[in-house]
Amino acid sequence: MSVQVVARIRPLLDKELDKDTIVRAEPSVEGQPANLVRIPNPKNEAEEFSFAFNSVYDMATSQEELYATEVAPHLKSLFKGLDVTIFAYGVTGTGKTHTMRGGLKLAERGVIPRLLSGIYRRGKKIRKDTNEETQVTVTLSYYEIYNDKVYDLFEIPEKRTLAGLRLCEKDGKTIVVNLSERPCADLKDFEKLYIEANNNRSTAGTKLNAESSRSHAVLMVKVIQTTGDSCLTSTASAIDLAGSEDNRRTENGKERMVESASINKSLFVLSQCIDAIGRGDKRIPYRESKMTRILSLGQNNGITIMILNLAPLRSYHLDTLSSLNVSSRAKRIEVREIENEVVFTQPPRKTGLSGTSISRQPLRP
Ligand code: ADP
Ligand code: MG
What is the ipTM of this complex? Predict the structure, then answer.
Protein backbone atom coordinates (compact mmCIF):
# COMPACT_ATOMS: atom_id res chain seq x y z
CA MET A 1 0.00 0.00 0.00
CA SER A 2 1.25 3.48 -0.71
CA VAL A 3 1.27 6.51 1.54
CA GLN A 4 -2.25 7.90 1.59
CA VAL A 5 -2.10 11.60 0.84
CA VAL A 6 -5.21 13.62 1.54
CA ALA A 7 -5.57 17.37 1.18
CA ARG A 8 -7.79 19.53 3.36
CA ILE A 9 -8.65 23.11 2.47
CA ARG A 10 -9.51 25.18 5.51
CA PRO A 11 -12.39 27.67 5.53
CA LEU A 12 -11.86 31.42 5.63
CA LEU A 13 -11.51 32.85 9.13
CA ASP A 14 -13.81 35.68 10.19
CA LYS A 15 -11.15 38.26 9.46
CA GLU A 16 -10.57 36.83 5.98
CA LEU A 17 -14.13 36.81 4.68
CA ASP A 18 -13.46 39.59 2.20
CA LYS A 19 -10.38 37.87 0.79
CA ASP A 20 -9.96 36.22 -2.57
CA THR A 21 -9.85 32.39 -2.60
CA ILE A 22 -7.78 30.65 -5.23
CA VAL A 23 -7.76 26.99 -4.19
CA ARG A 24 -10.58 24.60 -5.13
CA ALA A 25 -11.42 20.96 -4.51
CA GLU A 26 -12.85 19.05 -7.48
CA PRO A 27 -13.51 15.47 -8.52
CA SER A 28 -11.71 14.15 -11.59
CA VAL A 29 -14.83 12.14 -12.46
CA GLU A 30 -18.12 13.94 -12.13
CA GLY A 31 -20.29 12.65 -9.32
CA GLN A 32 -17.31 11.14 -7.45
CA PRO A 33 -15.77 12.59 -4.27
CA ALA A 34 -13.17 15.33 -4.85
CA ASN A 35 -9.61 14.19 -5.50
CA LEU A 36 -8.10 17.20 -7.25
CA VAL A 37 -6.80 20.51 -5.95
CA ARG A 38 -6.93 23.29 -8.53
CA ILE A 39 -4.90 26.47 -8.22
CA PRO A 40 -3.91 29.19 -10.71
CA ASN A 41 -0.44 29.37 -12.16
CA PRO A 42 1.05 32.44 -10.43
CA LYS A 43 2.90 33.36 -13.62
CA ASN A 44 -0.19 33.17 -15.78
CA GLU A 45 -3.49 33.31 -13.95
CA ALA A 46 -5.43 32.21 -17.03
CA GLU A 47 -3.83 28.83 -16.56
CA GLU A 48 -4.63 26.39 -13.77
CA PHE A 49 -2.57 23.65 -12.19
CA SER A 50 -4.21 20.58 -10.80
CA PHE A 51 -2.80 18.13 -8.28
CA ALA A 52 -4.31 14.70 -7.67
CA PHE A 53 -4.54 13.12 -4.20
CA ASN A 54 -6.25 10.13 -2.66
CA SER A 55 -8.96 12.50 -1.58
CA VAL A 56 -9.48 16.23 -1.18
CA TYR A 57 -11.63 17.82 1.50
CA ASP A 58 -13.11 21.24 0.97
CA MET A 59 -13.78 24.09 3.37
CA ALA A 60 -17.05 22.60 4.59
CA THR A 61 -15.51 19.35 5.86
CA SER A 62 -16.12 18.71 9.54
CA GLN A 63 -13.63 17.21 11.98
CA GLU A 64 -15.89 14.19 12.34
CA GLU A 65 -16.06 13.61 8.59
CA LEU A 66 -12.30 13.75 8.11
CA TYR A 67 -11.69 11.39 11.01
CA ALA A 68 -14.44 8.97 10.00
CA THR A 69 -13.31 8.62 6.39
CA GLU A 70 -9.53 8.83 6.70
CA VAL A 71 -8.52 7.60 10.13
CA ALA A 72 -11.21 5.42 11.75
CA PRO A 73 -11.01 2.72 9.05
CA HIS A 74 -7.40 2.00 10.12
CA LEU A 75 -8.20 1.23 13.76
CA LYS A 76 -8.83 -2.38 12.83
CA SER A 77 -5.34 -2.68 11.35
CA LEU A 78 -3.81 -1.04 14.40
CA PHE A 79 -5.34 -3.72 16.60
CA LYS A 80 -4.14 -6.39 14.18
CA GLY A 81 -0.61 -5.25 14.94
CA LEU A 82 0.12 -2.67 12.25
CA ASP A 83 1.66 0.67 13.13
CA VAL A 84 -0.30 3.68 11.92
CA THR A 85 1.31 7.06 11.27
CA ILE A 86 -0.71 10.19 10.57
CA PHE A 87 1.10 13.42 9.88
CA ALA A 88 -0.05 16.93 9.05
CA TYR A 89 2.02 18.90 6.57
CA GLY A 90 1.54 22.46 5.39
CA VAL A 91 2.25 26.13 5.78
CA THR A 92 1.74 27.82 9.20
CA GLY A 93 -1.86 28.95 9.52
CA THR A 94 -3.35 26.30 7.23
CA GLY A 95 -4.98 24.15 9.93
CA LYS A 96 -2.46 21.46 10.93
CA THR A 97 -3.01 21.87 14.66
CA HIS A 98 -6.74 22.30 14.13
CA THR A 99 -6.81 19.03 12.19
CA MET A 100 -4.64 17.05 14.61
CA ARG A 101 -5.57 18.54 17.98
CA GLY A 102 -8.63 20.66 17.23
CA GLY A 103 -10.70 22.64 19.67
CA LEU A 104 -12.13 21.75 23.06
CA LYS A 105 -15.77 21.59 21.97
CA LEU A 106 -16.91 18.09 21.07
CA ALA A 107 -17.55 18.87 17.40
CA GLU A 108 -14.21 20.67 17.11
CA ARG A 109 -12.08 17.84 18.47
CA GLY A 110 -9.36 16.84 16.04
CA VAL A 111 -7.90 13.56 14.83
CA ILE A 112 -5.91 12.88 18.01
CA PRO A 113 -8.67 12.89 20.65
CA ARG A 114 -10.98 11.04 18.25
CA LEU A 115 -8.30 8.43 17.64
CA LEU A 116 -7.84 7.87 21.37
CA SER A 117 -11.57 7.64 21.82
CA GLY A 118 -11.75 5.05 19.04
CA ILE A 119 -8.87 3.06 20.56
CA TYR A 120 -10.55 2.87 23.99
CA ARG A 121 -13.85 1.87 22.46
CA ARG A 122 -12.25 -0.91 20.46
CA GLY A 123 -10.16 -2.01 23.43
CA LYS A 124 -13.29 -2.35 25.54
CA LYS A 125 -14.99 -4.39 22.85
CA ILE A 126 -12.02 -6.74 22.53
CA ARG A 127 -11.99 -7.29 26.29
CA LYS A 128 -15.66 -8.04 26.23
CA ASP A 129 -15.53 -10.27 23.14
CA THR A 130 -12.72 -12.35 24.69
CA ASN A 131 -14.37 -12.58 28.09
CA GLU A 132 -11.59 -10.48 29.59
CA GLU A 133 -9.00 -12.94 28.31
CA THR A 134 -7.34 -10.23 26.24
CA GLN A 135 -6.36 -7.11 28.13
CA VAL A 136 -5.68 -3.88 26.29
CA THR A 137 -3.27 -1.33 27.74
CA VAL A 138 -2.59 2.10 26.27
CA THR A 139 0.49 4.23 26.94
CA LEU A 140 1.44 7.66 25.63
CA SER A 141 4.70 9.33 24.73
CA TYR A 142 4.84 12.86 23.47
CA TYR A 143 7.83 14.83 22.27
CA GLU A 144 8.82 17.69 20.06
CA ILE A 145 11.68 18.08 17.64
CA TYR A 146 12.98 21.59 17.80
CA ASN A 147 16.20 22.74 16.12
CA ASP A 148 16.88 19.08 15.34
CA LYS A 149 16.75 18.16 19.02
CA VAL A 150 14.24 15.91 20.71
CA TYR A 151 12.48 17.09 23.90
CA ASP A 152 10.15 14.98 25.99
CA LEU A 153 6.91 16.90 26.51
CA PHE A 154 5.99 14.82 29.56
CA GLU A 155 9.08 16.13 31.32
CA ILE A 156 8.76 19.55 32.87
CA PRO A 157 10.94 22.01 30.95
CA GLU A 158 13.30 22.47 33.92
CA LYS A 159 14.21 18.82 33.79
CA ARG A 160 15.13 18.81 30.14
CA THR A 161 18.67 19.09 28.94
CA LEU A 162 19.26 21.43 26.05
CA ALA A 163 21.03 18.67 24.16
CA GLY A 164 17.76 16.71 24.01
CA LEU A 165 17.25 12.98 23.69
CA ARG A 166 19.21 10.60 21.52
CA LEU A 167 17.81 8.41 18.75
CA CYS A 168 18.77 4.83 18.06
CA GLU A 169 17.62 2.09 15.71
CA LYS A 170 16.04 -1.05 17.11
CA ASP A 171 14.36 -3.81 15.08
CA GLY A 172 14.32 -1.55 12.06
CA LYS A 173 12.54 1.24 13.93
CA THR A 174 13.88 4.55 15.14
CA ILE A 175 13.55 4.84 18.91
CA VAL A 176 13.93 7.90 21.12
CA VAL A 177 16.20 6.84 23.99
CA ASN A 178 14.87 7.49 27.52
CA LEU A 179 11.58 8.89 26.27
CA SER A 180 8.99 8.66 29.02
CA GLU A 181 5.90 6.56 28.57
CA ARG A 182 2.75 7.27 30.56
CA PRO A 183 0.02 4.76 31.17
CA CYS A 184 -3.27 6.19 30.02
CA ALA A 185 -6.31 4.22 31.07
CA ASP A 186 -9.12 6.23 29.56
CA LEU A 187 -10.09 9.36 27.67
CA LYS A 188 -10.13 11.43 30.87
CA ASP A 189 -6.54 10.39 31.62
CA PHE A 190 -5.61 11.23 28.08
CA GLU A 191 -7.10 14.70 28.15
CA LYS A 192 -5.32 15.53 31.37
CA LEU A 193 -1.94 14.28 30.13
CA TYR A 194 -2.34 15.87 26.72
CA ILE A 195 -3.30 19.30 28.01
CA GLU A 196 -0.49 19.22 30.56
CA ALA A 197 2.06 18.27 27.92
CA ASN A 198 0.83 20.90 25.49
CA ASN A 199 1.30 23.46 28.25
CA ASN A 200 4.84 22.17 28.65
CA ARG A 201 5.23 22.80 24.97
CA SER A 202 4.40 26.47 25.23
CA THR A 203 6.43 26.89 28.45
CA ALA A 204 9.37 25.28 26.75
CA GLY A 205 8.68 27.69 23.96
CA THR A 206 9.31 30.73 26.11
CA LYS A 207 12.44 29.20 27.49
CA LEU A 208 13.82 28.00 24.22
CA ASN A 209 12.27 30.71 22.08
CA ALA A 210 10.21 28.18 20.19
CA GLU A 211 6.74 28.58 18.83
CA SER A 212 4.63 25.57 18.16
CA SER A 213 4.72 26.33 14.46
CA ARG A 214 8.49 26.00 14.55
CA SER A 215 8.74 22.53 16.07
CA HIS A 216 7.48 19.12 15.05
CA ALA A 217 5.23 17.51 17.68
CA VAL A 218 5.03 13.72 17.82
CA LEU A 219 2.43 11.88 19.89
CA MET A 220 2.88 8.10 20.16
CA VAL A 221 0.02 5.93 21.35
CA LYS A 222 1.13 2.42 22.16
CA VAL A 223 -1.56 -0.25 22.17
CA ILE A 224 -0.56 -3.40 24.05
CA GLN A 225 -2.83 -6.44 23.80
CA THR A 226 -2.03 -9.17 26.28
CA THR A 227 -3.55 -12.63 26.10
CA GLY A 228 -2.11 -15.03 28.65
CA ASP A 229 1.64 -14.87 28.16
CA SER A 230 1.55 -13.45 24.64
CA CYS A 231 1.63 -9.80 23.87
CA LEU A 232 1.02 -7.79 20.70
CA THR A 233 2.17 -4.19 20.58
CA SER A 234 1.42 -1.63 17.90
CA THR A 235 1.78 2.12 17.79
CA ALA A 236 -0.29 4.94 16.37
CA SER A 237 1.77 8.10 15.81
CA ALA A 238 0.19 11.48 15.21
CA ILE A 239 2.56 14.19 14.05
CA ASP A 240 1.97 17.93 13.74
CA LEU A 241 4.88 19.11 11.60
CA ALA A 242 6.40 22.58 11.72
CA GLY A 243 5.17 25.06 9.10
CA SER A 244 6.49 24.32 5.63
CA GLU A 245 6.62 27.97 4.51
CA ASP A 246 9.75 29.15 2.81
CA ASN A 247 11.52 31.00 5.58
CA ARG A 248 13.70 32.80 3.09
CA ARG A 249 10.63 34.66 1.94
CA THR A 250 9.26 35.44 5.38
CA GLU A 251 11.11 38.17 7.21
CA ASN A 252 12.93 36.41 9.97
CA GLY A 253 15.07 38.30 12.42
CA LYS A 254 18.58 37.14 13.15
CA GLU A 255 17.57 35.19 16.26
CA ARG A 256 15.32 33.14 14.06
CA MET A 257 18.03 32.21 11.62
CA VAL A 258 19.18 29.05 13.40
CA GLU A 259 15.62 27.86 13.90
CA SER A 260 14.65 28.66 10.35
CA ALA A 261 17.67 26.91 8.98
CA SER A 262 16.84 23.75 10.89
CA ILE A 263 13.13 23.82 10.08
CA ASN A 264 13.96 24.44 6.47
CA LYS A 265 16.50 21.69 6.65
CA SER A 266 14.27 18.97 8.11
CA LEU A 267 11.41 19.79 5.75
CA PHE A 268 13.86 20.07 2.87
CA VAL A 269 15.32 16.67 3.78
CA LEU A 270 11.76 15.32 3.91
CA SER A 271 11.14 16.51 0.35
CA GLN A 272 14.49 15.03 -0.70
CA CYS A 273 13.53 11.70 0.85
CA ILE A 274 10.21 11.78 -0.98
CA ASP A 275 11.99 12.45 -4.26
CA ALA A 276 14.67 9.83 -3.69
CA ILE A 277 12.06 7.19 -2.89
CA GLY A 278 10.03 8.23 -5.93
CA ARG A 279 13.11 7.83 -8.14
CA GLY A 280 13.86 4.44 -6.62
CA ASP A 281 17.28 5.58 -5.29
CA LYS A 282 19.22 3.10 -3.19
CA ARG A 283 20.20 5.77 -0.71
CA ILE A 284 17.41 7.75 0.94
CA PRO A 285 18.75 10.64 3.03
CA TYR A 286 16.65 9.83 6.13
CA ARG A 287 19.55 10.28 8.49
CA GLU A 288 20.11 13.90 7.58
CA SER A 289 17.50 15.11 10.04
CA LYS A 290 15.90 13.70 13.18
CA MET A 291 12.40 14.30 11.87
CA THR A 292 12.98 12.25 8.73
CA ARG A 293 14.72 9.52 10.74
CA ILE A 294 11.69 9.27 12.97
CA LEU A 295 9.17 9.49 10.16
CA SER A 296 11.16 7.04 8.00
CA LEU A 297 8.66 7.41 5.18
CA GLY A 298 8.37 4.22 3.19
CA GLN A 299 10.57 2.41 5.71
CA ASN A 300 8.28 2.10 8.64
CA ASN A 301 5.92 -0.80 8.40
CA GLY A 302 2.22 -0.24 8.45
CA ILE A 303 -0.03 2.54 7.33
CA THR A 304 0.97 6.12 6.67
CA ILE A 305 -1.46 8.97 6.09
CA MET A 306 -0.21 12.39 5.11
CA ILE A 307 -2.69 15.21 5.58
CA LEU A 308 -1.80 18.23 3.49
CA ASN A 309 -3.38 21.32 5.02
CA LEU A 310 -4.09 24.22 2.69
CA ALA A 311 -5.37 27.77 3.13
CA PRO A 312 -7.39 28.97 0.14
CA LEU A 313 -5.97 32.51 0.23
CA ARG A 314 -3.97 34.26 -2.43
CA SER A 315 -1.44 35.44 0.14
CA TYR A 316 -0.33 31.79 0.51
CA HIS A 317 -0.04 31.20 -3.24
CA LEU A 318 3.65 30.30 -3.63
CA ASP A 319 3.92 28.36 -0.39
CA THR A 320 0.73 26.48 -1.25
CA LEU A 321 2.17 25.51 -4.62
CA SER A 322 5.36 24.29 -3.05
CA SER A 323 3.54 22.14 -0.47
CA LEU A 324 1.25 20.77 -3.19
CA ASN A 325 4.33 19.78 -5.17
CA VAL A 326 6.00 17.98 -2.28
CA SER A 327 2.91 16.13 -1.10
CA SER A 328 1.66 15.05 -4.49
CA ARG A 329 5.00 13.29 -4.99
CA ALA A 330 4.59 11.48 -1.66
CA LYS A 331 1.67 9.47 -3.06
CA ARG A 332 4.05 7.24 -4.92
CA ILE A 333 5.75 5.95 -1.79
CA GLU A 334 5.04 2.32 -1.09
CA VAL A 335 4.73 1.22 2.51
CA ARG A 336 5.16 -2.34 3.67
CA GLU A 337 2.19 -3.57 5.58
CA ILE A 338 3.84 -5.81 8.10
CA GLU A 339 2.21 -6.62 11.37
CA ASN A 340 4.24 -6.42 14.53
CA GLU A 341 5.00 -9.84 15.89
CA VAL A 342 3.35 -11.37 18.88
CA VAL A 343 5.97 -11.66 21.61
CA PHE A 344 5.87 -13.96 24.57
CA THR A 345 6.64 -12.86 28.04
CA GLN A 346 7.74 -16.44 28.69
CA PRO A 347 9.10 -18.91 26.13
CA PRO A 348 6.16 -20.12 24.07
CA ARG A 349 4.80 -23.52 24.97
CA LYS A 350 4.66 -26.06 22.17
CA THR A 351 0.90 -25.72 22.07
CA GLY A 352 1.10 -21.94 22.22
CA LEU A 353 -0.16 -19.37 19.76
CA SER A 354 0.92 -19.81 16.20
CA GLY A 355 0.21 -16.35 14.89
CA THR A 356 3.84 -15.34 14.70
CA SER A 357 4.90 -16.28 11.20
CA ILE A 358 4.70 -13.16 9.15
CA SER A 359 5.88 -12.97 5.59
CA ARG A 360 8.27 -10.15 4.94
CA GLN A 361 7.98 -8.39 1.65
CA PRO A 362 10.80 -6.43 0.06
CA LEU A 363 10.56 -2.65 0.25
CA ARG A 364 10.40 -2.31 -3.50
CA PRO A 365 9.43 -5.24 -5.65
P1 ADP B 1 -1.33 25.57 11.73
O2 ADP B 1 -1.25 24.62 12.89
O3 ADP B 1 -1.20 24.87 10.40
O4 ADP B 1 -0.40 26.71 11.84
P5 ADP B 1 -3.92 26.22 12.83
O6 ADP B 1 -4.45 24.85 13.06
O7 ADP B 1 -3.40 26.94 14.01
O8 ADP B 1 -2.81 26.20 11.69
O9 ADP B 1 -5.07 27.04 12.08
C10 ADP B 1 -4.99 28.43 11.86
C11 ADP B 1 -6.33 29.06 12.20
O12 ADP B 1 -7.35 28.56 11.35
C13 ADP B 1 -6.78 28.74 13.61
O14 ADP B 1 -7.44 29.87 14.12
C15 ADP B 1 -7.76 27.60 13.42
O16 ADP B 1 -8.71 27.55 14.45
C17 ADP B 1 -8.38 27.94 12.09
N18 ADP B 1 -8.78 26.74 11.34
C19 ADP B 1 -7.96 25.89 10.70
N20 ADP B 1 -8.63 24.91 10.10
C21 ADP B 1 -9.94 25.14 10.35
C22 ADP B 1 -11.15 24.46 10.00
N23 ADP B 1 -11.16 23.34 9.26
N24 ADP B 1 -12.31 24.99 10.46
C25 ADP B 1 -12.33 26.10 11.20
N26 ADP B 1 -11.23 26.79 11.56
C27 ADP B 1 -10.04 26.33 11.15
MG1 MG C 1 0.11 24.64 14.48
Answer: 0.99
